[in-house]
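Write out the bound-state structure for calcium ion.
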Amino acid sequence: MSNTKNPNILFIMSDDHGAQAMSCYDSKINETPNLDRIANGGMRLTNCFCTNSICSPSRASILTGKYSHINGVKTLSDRFDGRQQTFPKLLQKAGYQTAIIGKWHLGQGGVSSPTGFDYWLVLPGQGLYHNPEMIEMGEKKVINGYVTDIITDYSIDWLKKRSKDKPFCLLCHHKAPHRSWEPDEKHAHLYEDVEIPTPETFNDDYKNRASAAAAATMRIERDLNKRDLKKDPPPNLSPEELKRWKYQRFIEDYLRCVASVDDNVGRLLDYLDEEGLTENTIVVYTSDQGFFLGEHGWFDKRFMYDESIRMPFLIRYPREIKPGTVSDRMVLNVDFAPTFLDYAGIPIPEEMQGRSFRRLLRGETPQDWQTSMYYRYWMHLAHHGVYAHYGVRTEQYKLIYYYAEALDATGAIDDPKPPEWELFDLEKDPLEMNSVYNEPAYAGVVKELKAELDRLRKEVKDEQ
Ligand SMILES: [Ca+2]
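---
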């Protein structure tokens, strides 16, 4: 048994895994028995959100407990400045053994290589699914095999080699199921004879929204390419049939990648069981953000819509978290770092903007717990034609401002669009199909939410 005072932390994060593709979140399209083991043994969060729905920014917010404009990683091209404080550094300083294995995606070299880790083995950039090159403590090497297996193999190896008299914190970061969704041999034939159902908003016509939704180039029928689909469609399909065929191709491969993640999570859980580590180890499974799996006719993320910003979040810690519990309270990716520090008994630095949700996980709700959140996506028209936007989500409403008439912080907007607003009543319209921003009945709500948005922008110091 390791030190019972300080729990071990096993943080497993995949890339672009939407909660809709997890059976513990009532998936209609697949089964994830090993992820369900974590949910059944602990707590599942239903309203965990990222504050900027793309890879590098979400990862930087998780490490630092700070929003993108404060930690400096607002876009995919911003490199992480590792001189700032992170939770792994603080854990390491407090005597934890620390490691990161898998996807880093925060820049390589200089101040951007991983810091605060006794051991690191990361993919360069996005990395490859098959026989990936990896960087081990600064040294490049090619590792044969399938990336999800490799990340798990090295994670288990590192755990085997750990010192048993110190607690550990292992960040196991999967590349899967990121585009271009390349499954391994073992799962290559899953779903072959199954028609996977399409989501309710698959044939969204983008009416009753701001112009951003219709302008986005992430449509299943038009924007998946040959590399994504891997084969040519059968001849003579109608447009509707072709769209469904493309969805099947995409979702089959996506779910095959997820199946491998699920198997490999099972291997890690088995290892903890075998070593008697389960009781004293906090196990988290999450993803850097959500993903559209055909909702609104899309793949990808970026938008402030729920499928994109919602992170699956499962956490098991038998000493403190009741098995099979669910919390609907709002938790953000900036809250992760303070929570881990709280569990380790380390004071949370002032500069961290998030807040520990350890009490929520114990089943308590602090009186002043957050009921609204600030979101911002900065990469105007950079990928998939998505407009830059920011907004506020409360438990009932979501107000989004597509602000691109003004220059952003980098002064980079050279294709301005008229500013536009969207308002969704999430109680009446949970699928976000009908903006009620201009409906007179919502004038009061708009006013309140604009005030709340101003308040949040001040609070998180994004007032530019
Ligand atoms: Ca991602």
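---
Residues 239-274 form the longest helix (36 residues).
The pocket of calcium ion is lined by residues 15-16, 55, 288-289 (CB under 6 Å).
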